[in-house]
Amino acid sequence: LLDSYTTLVPLALTSTHLPLKERLKVLKALKYLTGVYVSMNSLTIPEFFEDHIGEWMDHFHVMMSKLEAPRADMDGGFRPGDEIVREIVNVQTVVIEALTVYAEKYEEEFKPFLPQLTQDIWLLAVERGPDPALDGLVTNALAYLTTVAGQPWNRGLFEPEGAVSRIIKQICVPNLKMRSSDRESFRDTPYVFARENMDGSLANNRARAATELIRRLLVHFDAHVTSLCLSHIESLLASYRSNPNEWQDKYTAVSLFLAVAVKGSTRSHGATTLNTAMPVTAFLKEHVISSLTSGGPDSFPELKALLIKAVITFRTHLPADDNIALFEPLIELLNSNSYVVHTYAASAIDRLVTMAPISDKSAKVLDRAVVGRVVLKALDPLLRLANSPLYPKEKWPFNSFAMRALTDLLVQAPIPVTLPLLPALLRNLALFVRKIAENPEMCSSSWFTHYLFESIAVIVRRRISQEGRDTAVTDEAARVLGVVGRIEADLFPVFQVILQNQNEDLMPYVFQIMALLLEAAPGEISATYLALFEPILAPCNWQMAGNVAGLVRLLQAYLQKGTSQLLTANARFVERIIEVADGLMTSRRTEPSGMKLLTGLIEALDPALLRPHMPQILRLALRRLKSGWERPLVRRFAPLMDLLCVTVGKHGLGFFVEALESPGDLRAIQRGFWADFLPKIVAASRRKAGVIATVRMLAEDSELWADLPILERIVRALVETLLASAAAVEAGEKEIYLSMLEDVGDGGVKGTRLVHSRDGHHDAFAEVKKPEEFVVQGSVFSSE
């Protein structure tokens, strides 16, 4: 490798007389060889490379400083005939990647070469122009400087007078500017621009790399960097004030402020740690909030988008009154013709209404009454954005950010405010579903589809719980049945189209909404649902991975409604469900779903009907535990813990033990994980089941009292579970809700599970109000 490199480097410098193809071959060979070098040194430095490090670093110095430099004035792509320049850029990009590995991992070996190579990369970062074709090179150069600046032993490189000032002025500020190529992306591919820039998710982005460099310099030169940046910000703002049409100066100033003012951030909270020397509140009031709607929603859209991003970033650090005052301009910006601006505005409204203090994730900052007023003003603009006729025409997907904002507004707003709006809103959303069902190409974003059905689930739950209380109808069952019927009349026609066409993208959501309606309808299972039961069990439906979560959810609803009708419809339905669960539990991805099905059977069936099937159920449930299949522990064992707790708590320890393959399995379960996983159950109803099952185990297992080590662990786990505060449980469930919303992606099984259609873990022990009282009073079940 070294011999080849030694031969090729001089050729790269003196090959101007060679034909173009030959020169390109030399440069491409150097690029590939450097890539091999990076791979071989990524984990540890091999002895050969350590022995010859001087030769390698000399070659890298030559590659960085002697190769023909790309032109610094390019902004619009390489011109014809620039193939050589392009390959030089590619080689230097990979060389910087190699040097970054050494700077990060091999301090002692790299130290003698650090000053010269850092100077080479510094010059490259300064000299390279704004062309997007150079983004990889410049971003890698900034990443290298960020790595070096973050290491205390390299502090001396940046201490000479003017060094940090030149980095800020010559490297950071220029790369925070909005280039003409960025403006083209803003106008021509706004959907991509919004997704990649809103949360800083674009890895190969100069502005993000410059921001990281500034924040790393703040670690060791806090006061100096802050002072320099404030000076640049004021100069840029003064230039903007003298000519407000030059909005790019203010854009750069706000970008620089965001870079230096934020020391730590998360997606869910925005800025979490601030630079205390930066006047955040004053800056936002004077230069951000006051400018959100100046000149109308369509003036300087690039600048307005950045101002909204600043609001999103600092929202948790503004006083509540200031956050409330933001809603009016943000709602006005929903009417902007710029996709990025109205998308950012929708996201800002969403983040404000779901905002929680950094120190207490379970508490809301904004009062629900405020959210109610926002809903009344923002509902129509959000619906219009979610279904804008511009998007399909321009080949953009429906606006998933607007639909998510709509979902969260419905969740957070007071029910009396939203209830009168829900029937018409449901019909509008049903029209969205029909459009997507009939023309799938109109919606390329699974995010939009997910939040669309999430909104439908919220509406269904709200209407059933509230309209079912209509005192004009004295019969409660009739009231609820009437509400369910009206909802089904709005949704079932389009659901029928989806099921008939076997629309794989929408079917999982349809099954979950149907589960909600089936659970809510009083009385027996309707003929419509009975007719669907047998087709649901057909193997072809379960072969589509996306269907699994929705089908399991629907089958749980069937089981909770009662089993007598199911037995009449199919005498072998229990065996059929066990077969389905067996198939699901052969795969890691669907094993938890299979466990849920088995748990639903145990909850629904009476002991006489369940007893013949329990050995097979427990054999399937414990199969993976005995095989030692490695997975994240909580995810693997939580569904199994649910199943065991429901079995022991509902039917008693004797019923459980007689179905085990070996009596020794009970002690293995107690010793293996019962005590460890009991306190880790999050859902309140499942925690109750765990407490009840543990109490019954202690009361009905006389041999357990002779095994003091296991007894002590189980009692300790029981006490720990009981002491867990209700607030902690609520916070845990809230965290699950937020994480599920954040994890919705562009496809995959996980992304099809609706938060607001979750079964919420059916309470198999509704008669026990407080598990603490159950422990004190002793078992209320017969142990016979």
Explain what the structure shows:
The protein is an all-alpha fold and 784 residues long. It has 41 helices and two strands. A two-stranded antiparallel ribbon has the order 1-2. Helix 32 runs parallel beside helix 35 (633-651). The protein is globular. 41% of the residues are buried.
- The class by helix and strand makeup works out as mainly alpha
Question: What can be said about the biggest beta sheet?
Answer: 2 strands, antiparallel
Distance between the termini: 78 Å
Q: Spatial order of the strands in the main sheet?
A: 1-2
How helical, in percent, are the residues? 55-70%
Let me know the number of strands: 2
Low-confidence stretches: 70-78, 629-633, 725-750, 779-784
- Percentage of residues in strands: under 5%
Count up the helices.
Answer: 41
Mean pLDDT equals 83
CA-based gyration radius:
31 Å
Bulk shape:
globular
Which features characterize this protein?
784 residues; mainly alpha; 1% strand; disordered C terminus; single chain; 68% helix
Short description:
The chain has 41 helices and 2 strands. By secondary structure, the protein is mainly alpha-helical. Helix 5 packs parallel to helix 8, helix 9 crosses helix 13 and helix 12 crosses helix 14.
